[in-house]
Specification:
Layout: E1 10-14, H1 20-33, E2 38-41, E3 48-53, H2 56-62, E4 73-82, H3 90-98, E5 107-111, H4 122-138, E6 152-159, E7 162-168, H5 194-204, H6 207-213, E8 219-223, H7 229-236, E9 240-244, H8 251-254, E10 259-262, E11 275-280, H9 286-298, E12 302-310, H10 316-331, E13 336-340, E14 348-354
Helix pairs in contact: 5-7, 9-10
Amino acid sequence: MAADAPPLDGLFCWCRAGFEPELAGELSERAAQANLPGYARTERNSGYVEFICEDAAALSRALPFSGLIFARQKLLRLADLRGIDPKDRITPILAALEMLPKQVFGELWVEHPDSDAGKPLAGLARSFGNALRPALRKAGWLTRVDDAGKPRLHVVFLDGDHVVLARSEPRDSAPWPLGIPRLRMHADAPSRSALKLEEALLTLLSDEERQRLLRDGMRSADLGAAPGGWTWVLVRNGLHVTSVDNGPLRQHLLDSGRVDHLRADGFQWQPKAPLDWMVCDMVEQPRRVAERMATWLREGWCRHAIFNLKLPMKKRWDETRLCLELFEQQARKPLLVRARQLYHDREEITVFASAAQR
């Protein structure tokens, strides 16, 4: 590899393997709307998308990470290094950094795609990080002690001889390597779906919002609750829950004293008095869910909501955009809306909506 190869200007974004076309479509459309057109480059099931643009720094500012749906992480690509000699990967990385304006990074993250092809690179990424970190500190590219307030340097292994160098801003990126929060399944959780709501609260709400919007004694509803994974998360956050489902709930939820189980259709039921929260993970057509969720916010039945939209097999970005537009139109009031395909999601996206703030 030529040490003087110029860095390429673009965004590098992680995503769920298989959803590269959706992320590519999202980035392309939003870049065009920002008058910063470029082109997406990816491969199916690779777990990432590169978006090449003449002014990627401006594009990164125009496309904040918090507004992206199918990206787990957003990075500004610095260099694409191919044909690296496996016997000495550090030298070409340092040479590529020397071509950039001098800066000091607060952390080094060595990553690999979360895909079938990328997972065998995990061991290499771990060991190489231990070798590269002291070399970067000696050359003045990395702080002596990790500093989470400074930009991060990302070294991405796409193959044993193919490395992408990138950077991220802590305030405009996910705070976890690969954009994946490390959550563990609790022994008391009724189902693995609990991880989806736990991740949604962690990802779609800020620390300040979680403290302010999830307070002990608040009242909530869980539509399509059985066997109770999302109800369990709400109870753990101190909420009283009306769990609506014709199916059974786990007994320990009923024993908590915070859960009322109503055997009813979640699409037909409505509360007698306004609630603080409503959550919904029902398997239904996404447009139907979007319309029903809009009704809840429009009628004032809840102040905050988290719900999933199960996507079709084709044209998933188009369906996502249509459903979110439909939801906001039919809500007929100003809303704060955030959406993301979470790590624990599958063929779906998760939406947070709030009528109490804008």
